[in-house]
Amino acid sequence: MIDHQILIYSDSLTWGIIPNTRNRLPFELRWPGVLENALRERGVSARVIEDCLNGRRTAFDDPEKPGRSGLEGVEQKIEMHSPLRLVVLMLGTNDFQAVHANTIGRSAQGMASLVAAVRRAPIEPDMPIPQILIVAPPPVGQPKGEMAYKFDGAKERCEGLSSAFEQVARGHDCGFFDAGSITTTSKIDGVHLDEDQHEVLGLAIADVAECMIIQ
Fold first, then answer.
1. Domains and CATH numbers, the chain
2. Rounded to an integer, what distance in angstroms lies between the CA atom of residue 203 and that of residue 85?
3. Nearest to residue 23, comparing CAs of 15, 33, 31, 35?
4. Residue 173: phi, psi to the nearest 5?
5. How many CB atoms lie within 10 A of CB 20?
6. DSSP states along 184-214
7. What is the pLDDT of residues 36-59, one digit of tens each?
8. Dihedral of CA 92/94/96/102: which sign?
């Protein structure tokens, strides 16, 4: 019997895009799969549900592709997958695409709006409001290849995002983890995660998630 359901709400860094391709890593190699397997190996009965959309922002629309605002439909996603023990929010990278003039402050406001939306989702009366873990993505490196134009200037503009997200987490009683403390973006495109970084991140999130869901 699965005791704990964990929803991962994220973007292409978690979807598992292979840098400079349109291919995807298999589930067991993506960090959500690493997380699920690590928890089960530790005797924690858990199911990880992925909701990861390429290009998703915290709370901003993509002028070229509809539905990329994380706020769009998130309450229904919580309702759909409940009961949930934990929701992991790992967004923010796409807030700094060149089409936006966002600051870390605006991105932090977007994350705070997501937290509020998760908590007001119309779940069934006897179902628990899930705990929330905010994961700050690793900082954008030097964008290369197809990412160079799309993320022009993002490296400089996203500096300090982790600290801003940590303040959101403290102010809204959420867990927090800085992915940039253990992972780096790919040297291939400067934005996404290489396969080995998925494993590192999944194992680290397992440590945090285990503490949050069994307390």
1. 4-214 (3.40.50.1110)
2. 19
3. 15
4. 55, 50
5. 15
6. ---TTTSSS--HHHHHHHHHHHHHHHHHHHH
7. 999 999 999 999 999 999 999 999
8. negative
Q: Which residues pair with 69 in a beta bridge?
A: 57
Across all residues in the chain, what is the average pLDDT?
A: 97
pLDDT, average across residues 168-175: 98
Q: What are phi and psi of 155, to 5 degrees?
A: -55, -45
Instruction: Give the integer Cα–Cα distance in Å for 197 and 186.
Output: 9
Average pLDDT over residues 150-155: 97
pLDDT in tens, 104-151: 999 999 999 999 999 999 999 999 999 999 999 999 999 999 999 999
Hey, what amino acid is at 185?
T
Residue 1 has a pLDDT of: 57
Does residue 214 surpass a pLDDT of 90?
A: no
**CB-based burial label for 169 (10 Å; 0-12, 13-18, 19+):** buried
For residues 128 and 139, what is the distance between their CA atoms, to the nearest angstrom?
Answer: 33
Question: E strands, 13-105, where?
Answer: 46-52, 86-90
